[in-house]
Design goal:
Radius of gyration: 25 Å
Strand order of the largest sheet: 1-2-6-5
Distance between the termini: 71 Å
Largest sheet: 4 strands, antiparallel
Strand content: 25-35%
């Protein structure tokens, strides 16, 4: 099981949690539950993948459990959510994803500003040298 979460605030408008894994039974249709949300599991050439994308405030820094269910298990899970009196079903597999949260990384000012100031300094220096030569 490998996972990825969004950590860089300036580059993303939403937080994504992506979990990739391989399953022993490739013909089984799987579903996943992350933070109480039922999600489909997609088949890829390398295995399976599930993705959850939400606003940054909806997915704060935390360790999230990803519960995988087969078709019967997800039906039982939905019944459990609808009627909380029933016992929650056991997932086929559970994976844990550590999301450190999003933060501003890098310099406190934007790199475009640094490039603009450097360009103006080069232009000013070249213009000053040109003015001295033409005197």
């Amino acid at each position: 099981v490998t996972s990825y979460t969004t950590t860089n605030l300036p580059l993303a408008t939403e937080t994504a949690i992506i979990v990739e894994f391989t399953a022993d039974c490739p013909d089984t249709k799987l579903s996943a539950v992350i933070a109480g949300e039922v999600l489909p599991v997609y088949s890829t050439s390398d295995g399976h993948m599930v993705t959850l994308v939400k606003e940054h405030t909806a997915l704060p820094a935390s360790a999230y459990n990803v519960d995988f269910y087969d078709e019967a298990g997800i039906a039982a899970y939905k019944n459990h959510v609808k009627d909380s009196a029933t016992e929650p079903p056991a997932p086929v597999h559970t994976a844990s994803v550590n999301h450190p949260g999003v933060s501003k990384e890098g310099l406190p000012i934007q790199t475009e500003f640094i490039v603009m100031v450097a360009s103006l300094l080069v232009w000013w220096g070249a213009n000053s040298i040109k003015a001295k030569i033409s005197e």
